[in-house]
What we know:
By secondary structure, this protein is of the alpha+beta class. About 30% of the residues lie in helices and about 35% in strands. It contains five helices and 23 strands. It has helices spanning about 5-35, 95-130, 135-165, 210-215, 350-355; strands at about 35-40, 40, 45-55, 60-65, 70, 80, 85-90, 170, 175-180, 190, 195-200, 205-210, 225, 235-240, 245-250, 255-260, 275-280, 290-295, 300, 305-310, 315-330, 330-335, 345. The strands form four sheets. Strands 1, 2, 18, 19, 20, 21, 22 and 23 form an eight-stranded antiparallel β-sheet that branches. The protein has a seven-stranded antiparallel β-sheet with strand order 14-13-17-3-12-16-15. Strands 4-11-9-6 form a four-stranded antiparallel β-sheet, with no helix packed on it. Strand 21 and strand 22 form a beta hairpin. Helix 2 packs antiparallel against helix 3. The relative contact order is 0.19.
Amino acid sequence: MATRPLTVSIQLTTKQVLASIAVCFASQVAAASLEVAGVRSSHNASSITADGVVEAVRQTVIAAQVSGAITDLPVKAGDSIKAGQMLVRLDGRAASQQAHASQAQVEVARASLQVASKDFERQKQLFARQYISQAQLDRAEAQFKSATADANAQIAQAGAVQTQAGFYSLTAPYAGRIADVFISEGDMVTPGKALLAVFDPSALRVTATLPQAQLASLANGQTINIEIPGLPLAQRIIRLDKYIVLPVTDASTHTVQLRFDLPAVPGLAPGMFARLQLPARAVDDMGDNTRLYVPATAVLRRAELYGVYVVNPQGKAMLRQIKPGPIVGEEQEVLGGVAAGEKVARYPLAALQSR
């Protein structure tokens, strides 16, 4: 009776061993079936990668020039606007009354000028017939010139008051869209206060910064690839062949700014992130131009994060975040996260199932 429990214990231990061997064998089979590819390194300086941002060529912050309460605000953020369209109206009743008073002063000055002009003409006729003296003619001429100057001054003042009254109604400087509205109807504004931000969506560009040491490596006359991750896949890559280098270098960062005019692309908006692939000239072997590539199918994307499954020497796949570069053919350049010679799973789904 003492040997029976021992026999059962040995049978259970044998089953556990067999199960463990089966699990290990399945893991080895999965690892063997997992297709891997090495991280390829290249010393060819075929391109320079830079990050940029989409911005509008024409973007304006509309501010108040006078004080007043907002009485009408017919637009909101996101609205399309036409050139000359009224955007904000301030309470300008006092300015309107001043404009009417100035116009009345102009009418008075014009009437006085008309009287002085007719009197001067009569005095000239009387002087020609020698009925009056030269002094009387000079006096009439002086009165005419004084009335002329007074009328011109009143007209100029009325124009200034009329212009001042126009500051209470703000209109769109060009056709575009409302980016943001910073005020509400009824708010009290002062001169210089920002009211709205508008931009022209028909003229967009990408602005990027580049270290001044890399500026001499840029190759001219070749295609520039600009990737906009925020656009649909079919519209994500934009190809250009021209750019502008601003003639000023930032003294604090030692970088230069590059601008790329974009064509009209649906869905493109200011503030979007852009990744640029700039063609570069070939350099000597002394430069550090090592570039790393993995198969494009190996890159896994979740929202704005990119990763690959790195397979260690034991055949275990571990997810690792990477910084992606441009896609070159069937390969994805990796700017950071992996090292040359490491193995990555060619297909992330297979690597996930093998874990």
